[in-house]
Amino acid sequence: MTIPAPIAMLAELTHRCPLSCPYCSNPVELARQDSELDTETWVRVFDEAARLGVLQLHLSGGEPASRRDLVPLVQAARDAGLYTNLITSGIGLTERRLKELDEAGLDHIQLSLQGTTPEMADEIGGYNGGYKRKMQVAEWIGQIGFPLTLNAVLHRRNLHQLPRAIEMAQEMGARRIEVATVQFHGWALKNLDTLMPTREQAREATRIVAESRAALKGRLVIDYVPADYHDDYPKRCMGGWGSTGLNVAPDGQVLPCHAAQSIPHLEFETVRDKPLDEIWYNSAAFNAYRGTDWMQEPCKSCERKMVDFGGCRCQAMAIVGDPAATDPVCIKSPHHGALQTKADTHASNTEAPLVYRTMPGKKEVEPTS
Amino acid sequence: MIATDIPSLPRGVRLHFDKVRDTWVLLAPERAITLDQIGHAILTEVDGRRSFGEITQALSDKYNAPVEQITEDSSGFLTALRDRRFLDVTQ
C-alpha cells in the first residue's frame, strides 16, 4: 500500500483553556503546562510538516490563545508555507493581539459557539461573561477582515438554538458555519446523559441544515456533523486512519486522531525524539489501522469499506471494547441495536448534571445556573 | 457567470504550489483543492480587475481555443468556487 502524504495537521498547542466545556475533545488525562512543547520545537515541527506535504495547519488546544507565543508560532507556520487556521473560543484574544495575528499572516479563524444566548453559552462553557467577550472578539475579527467560520457545537441542551446560530453566522459575516453535533469522545463520554440528542432533535437538525443550505447557497456554506449514534452508517473518521491528517498533542506525541490515546494497545511516538515524516510513515500507531488489512467481518467483505473505513476506531474501542471492530454505529454491526437503545436511554435521562472538564490540580467548576 | 461579472479571490483563498505533490492547489479555509492545468490557467487570470468576459477572451487567445468552450468550462468551475465561498463576484 502506498502511504499518501498528510494534508492537514492539528497542532494542539496546549490543553489549557479558560472554558470547561463538558464535551471537550481533549483526553480526560490532560497534558500539564510544564510538559508542553516550547516555541522552538513547534517551529521545527511546522517546518517538518510542510516538507512532509501538510498544507493546512489547524492551531488548536485547549485554547491556543492561552499560549503566549501564539503570534510568533503563526508567523513561523506561514514562513514554512502552511495555511494557518486558528481554532479558538475567542477568550484570550484582544484587539491588539488579533492585529498582531493579522500582521503575522493568520489565514482564517474558526470561532466556537457554545450557545446563542449568554445564559446558554456561559453555562455550557462554565465561564461567566464568556459569551459577551466572544461577541466582542467576533466584532474585531469582522473589522480586521479575517475569513471566519463559526463552529456551533450542538447537543440536547442547545439543539433548539440551531436556527439562531445560522443567523448569527450571517450577522458576523462568516462565510461558513460548522454545525457540529457533539461526538462522544474525551470528556463528552462523561456527559452522555446530559448531551445525547433525542432522535427527533437529530432529525430536525438534519432538516434545518438541508433547508438552510438551499436558502443560503452562495452566501453561507454549512458543514454538518450529524449526531452519530442515531445514524445507520458510521463517519469516515479522519478521512481514513493515517491517510490525510495527523495530530500533535501539547507534549509532542503524534496521534492519528485526537482521541487515539483511548486505544490502550497503541504506543505513540513524539516529535521530541523523531522527525515527523518518520513517525507518519513508519510508526506502529499510524500503521495499525491504515488501509483495510486490519478489518474484521462485517467490514472485511463490505462494499462500503473504502467509503468509511469501518468508521471510528476510538468509538469501536469505547463501546465494543475492540478497536478493530466495526464502528457500532453501523447498521451491519452486531452491536448497532444495543447502541441505538443506549442512545435513546441517555437521551431520555433528564436528571443528570453536567460534568465539566477540569485541569489536573484545578478546582472543579460549578454550574452557573 | 455573465461576461460583466468581475471574479476575485477573497482574503484567505490563495494559489499555492505544492512541491511535495508537484501540483498547484487552491488553499481556502480548512480546504485544499488540487487544480488541474485548466483550473490553474483560469485562476491565474482572476485578478479582481478584469471581467469574466475579458478573462475568457484572454484564455481563448492564449490557448488558441474557441471562446465558447472556454466560457462554458470556466463558468462551471468558477460558479462551483463561488458556491463554496472561495470566490467573490462583483458586477
Q: What would you note in describing this structure?
A:
The complex is a heterodimer of chains A (369) and B (91). Chain A is an alpha/beta fold. Chain A has helices at residues 39-52, 70-79, 95-104, 118-125, 130-144, 162-171, 192-195, 199-215, 276-282, 284-288, 305-308, 313-320, 336-347; strands at 8-12, 56-60, 83-88, 108-113, 148-154, 176-181, 221-225, 245-248, 254-255. Chain A contains 13 helices and nine strands. Chain A has a nine-stranded mixed β-sheet with strand order 7-6-5-4-3-2-1-8-9. Chain A is globular, with a radius of gyration of 20 Å. Chain B has 91 residues and is an alpha+beta fold. Helices cover 42% and strands 23% of the residues of chain B. Chain B has helices at residues 37-45, 52-63, 67-83, and strands at residues 6-8, 14-18, 23-28, 31-34, 88-90. Chain B has a three-stranded antiparallel β-sheet, covered by helices on one side. The longest helix of chain B is centred in the last third of the chain and has 17 residues, at 67-83. The model of chain B has no long low-confidence stretch (mean pLDDT 96). The chains are: A alpha/beta (369), B alpha+beta (91).
Order of helices and strands of chain A: EHEHEHEHHEHEHHEEEHHHHH
Unreliable spans of chain A are: none
Query: What is the count of β-strands of chain A?
Result: 9
- Tally of separate helices of chain A: 13
Structural class of chain A: alpha/beta
Oligomer: heterodimer
User: What is the strand arrangement across the widest sheet of chain A?
Assistant: 7-6-5-4-3-2-1-8-9
Classify the helix fraction of chain B into a percent range: 40-55%
- Cα shape of chain B: globular
